[in-house]
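Attaching the record inline, Q. Sequence:
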Amino acid sequence: MRSLDAPIRRRRRAMSEINVVPYIDVMLVLLVIFMVTAPMLQEGVEIDLPQAPSRPLPEETRASEPIVVQVAGDGRFYVKPERIPLSDTELGEVVAKKVEEGGKDKVYVEGHRTVPYERVVSALVLLKEAGVEGVGLVTEMPDELPDGE
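Structure, as predicted:
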């Protein structure tokens, strides 16, 4: 028989349930973090392209990611998708390197609507000096086409 002073020992049963509340808390925190940071990753250089009636690129050209040089409204050069402003000398080097790595022979230039024409021509000259053979200019389709088109 047991004495009354002896502690009662109970067998602990193993807990077979998993507490998922901490995991849900972590997932909600991660969701908030991703919701806040995702719009920051989508930023780019704002280019307001001039509008002109033109034909869209052929499907085979659109299938691969082209090299796009942007001339921002302040006259600085960018190469998509990077958002780093490039000097005149850096532009030629960066594009020549991308052309060699990607095996692409076409480069497209997006010039902001308000940028001086001289900066767009400078980009074309720098690309030609870098050895790029095919250069195209990018425009937006106008909301309304002129009469007869």
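Strands lie at 67-71, 77-79, 106-111, 134-137. Residues 21-41 form the longest helix (21 residues).

More tomorrow.
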